[in-house]
Amino acid sequence: MKKDADNKNPINELQKKRWSPRSFADTEIPKGKIYSMFEAASWAASSRNEQPWRFIYGLKGEGENYKKIIDTLVSWNQKWAKTAPMLVVGVAKLNSDYHNKPNEYAHYDLGQAVAAMSLQAISDGIYVHQMGGFEKDKVRNSFKMSDNYEPMVAIAVGYLGQPEDLPDDMRELEEKPRTRYELNRLIFNGDFKP
Ligand SMILES: Cc1cc2nc3c(=O)[nH]c(=O)nc-3n(C[C@H](O)[C@H](O)[C@H](O)COP(=O)(O)O)c2cc1C
């Protein structure tokens, strides 16, 4: 299934093709492609080049991490994310290496790293679906995380599956066209009138 962006202005192919599926194929991701995703994330820009992103990942059928991560997801996300061969948690490092005070850009920078990861993934035909629906405290406990780190996002990763494999309500969402606000609601070349 294709859910390319219905863009009004030309955009690059990777942005056009990226979307967030809920049905994943039962296909392993080659290790090299996984490292390319994390490598791309590591080359994102960050305030003072502090790189305040950390990633915990788990592969289905390998070690404990996959199960630990799936246990942190809210049940609605568990229902579909369990089809993904890989789960990731994106973590922000909160205090700055520079002055050991809160780094106000930590979350912003983590988001940029995940965006870079998503585009690298789609360049290899791999799809990324971010989730806010998970329990941060479970992640903290499960991975013995200090207060200097904040789990911000869970991420399902894999190759595209079939919408028919999803429960009915999710299949509808999977098949629904993607929409965006008109640009004139978002950008201002004069007064800021949101
Ligand atoms: C920070 C963040 C949290 C999200 N949380 C969830 C979630 O808990 N469950 C879910 O199914 N999708 C979640 N999404 C996916 C969004 O719903 C999706 O990105 C949005 O509808 C736009 O669709 P697209 O990514 O296909 O363009 C989340 C996305 C982001 C960036």
Describe the protein:
The protein has a single domain, classed as 3-Layer(aba) Sandwich (NADH Oxidase). A 4-stranded antiparallel β-sheet has the order 1-2-4-3, sandwiched between helices. The two termini are 35 Å apart. The chain is 32% helix and 15% strand. It has helices at 13-17, 31-42, 65-70, 75-81, 106-123, 136-142, 168-175, and strands at 53-59, 86-93, 127-131, 149-158. By secondary structure, it is α+β, with helices and mostly antiparallel strands. Bound molecules: flavin mononucleotide. Flavin mononucleotide (FMN) binds next to strand 3.
Explain the layout of strands and helices:
Elements: H1 13-17, H2 31-42, E1 53-59, H3 65-70, H4 75-81, E2 86-93, H5 106-123, E3 127-131, H6 136-142, E4 149-158, H7 168-175
Antiparallel strand pairs: 1-2, 2-4, 3-4
Helix pairs in contact: 2-5
The structure holds flavin mononucleotide.
Flavin mononucleotide (FMN) binds at residues 19-20, 77, 130-133, 153, 178.
